[in-house]
Design a protein that fits this description.
By secondary structure, the chain is of the alpha+beta class. It has one domain: Gcn5-related N-acetyltransferase (GNAT) (Aminopeptidase, 3-Layer(aba) Sandwich). The chain contains four helices and six strands, in the order ββααβββαβα. Strands 1-2-3-4-5-6 form a six-stranded mixed beta sheet, sandwiched between helices. β5, α3 and β6 form a beta-alpha-beta unit. GO terms for molecular function: acyltransferase activity, transferring groups other than amino-acyl groups. Pfam families: Acetyltransf_7 (PF13508).
């Protein structure tokens, strides 16, 4: 599927889906050092995940200050992951703006299910209609939280 690059601007901030604008080393620095979900993720693994996702870079002027990506079949389901805004830029409404732009993306409309996993920002996602699992007993997963630790 060929996706059109979309950009949104607000003052000196930009959100872009242009994969060529991403500062992958900056994204890797944050995800591999400052998150519990991607701690120690290898650069090659991150690069593969970005290559196979629809990415949303958040920039102050030209500097990468945030990121999110979605994995989707663009017909029925989307997974939202790796969402962050650097600490120095938090409290400015940028995460709300980022999620707003993601939810409005034309290729992500009319889908049956949106999925995300978070233990830090449920207040943000609840603004967009995300809820806890109504039937957690039907949810299954195979999860290896230490998968990247073998790379130390």
């Amino acid at each position: 599927m060929d996706l059109k690059v979309i950009e949104a601007h607000k003052n000196e901030y930009t959100i872009s889906t242009d994969i060529n604008k991403l500062d992958i080393s900056s994204i890797h620095e944050f995800l591999s050092n400052d998150t519990d979900w991607s701690y120690n993720i290898p650069l090659e693994t991150l690069t593969t995940s970005i290559t196979n996702s629809l990415n949303f870079g958040l920039y102050y002027q030209e500097k990468q200050i945030g990121f999110a990506r979605v994995i989707s079949d663009y017909a029925t389901i989307v997974y939202l992951g790796d969402v962050y805004v650097l600490p120095a830029y938090r409290g400015k409404g940028l995460s709300t703006w980022l999620i707003t732009e993601i939810m409005a993306h034309p290729n992500l409309q009319g889908l049956r299910r949106w999925i995300l996993l978070t233990d830090t920002a449920d207040w943000l996602y609840k603004k967009f209609g995300f809820t806890s699992l109504p039937k957690p007993e039907i949810y299954l997963e195979k999860h290896n939280p230490k998968v990247y630790l073998k790379n130390k």
